[in-house]
Write a structure and sequence with these properties.
Elements lengths: L1 H18 L9 E3 L8 H9 L9 E3 L9 E5 L8 H12 L3 E5 L2 H12 L6
Parallel strand pairs: 3-4
Antiparallel strand pairs: 1-2, 2-3
Helix pairs in contact: 1-4
């Protein structure tokens, strides 16, 4: 059901684009696409370039108080964090970041809005 997570990533990105004027910090929300079908050659090239397992889906580079940013992983159904994602999440929390695992794009949007102190009911 990877395509459902992909859909939610697209919807969250559409929400970001629709709300950037109202919430300017959304400009600093980035998506790191991982997984997907790739040829063995492409996978080898990416690995040689430094691509690794574990990065979360969305990173918001916007400081709030002592917190340097917010990291969000989108999941669907019964999907859980991989061991690499758990390790990165724990590390980022130790570095002061906020992290959230969301099972719907709307929940991710609310996490971002709450983190940025934006009004509810976007």
């Amino acid at each position: 059901m990877k395509h459902i997570e992909d859909d939610h990533a697209r919807y969250l990105t559409q929400w970001r684009c629709a709300n950037e004027r109202r919430i300017p910090e959304l400009r600093w929300l980035y998506h790191w696409p991982q997984g997907g079908k790739r040829s063995k050659i492409t996978a080898a090239i990416l690995k040689a370039m430094g691509v690794r397992k574990g990065p979360w889906d969305f990173w918001l580079f916007a400081r709030r108080g002592n917190c340097p940013g917010l990291m969000i992983e989108l999941k669907h159904g019964k999907n859980k964090l991989t061991d690499e994602q758990k390790e990165l999440g724990e590390y980022m929390v130790s570095q002061g970041w906020d992290v959230a695992v969301c099972y719907h794009w709307h929940d991710a949007a609310q996490e971002i809005a709450d983190y940025l102190g934006a009004p509810r009911g976007f």
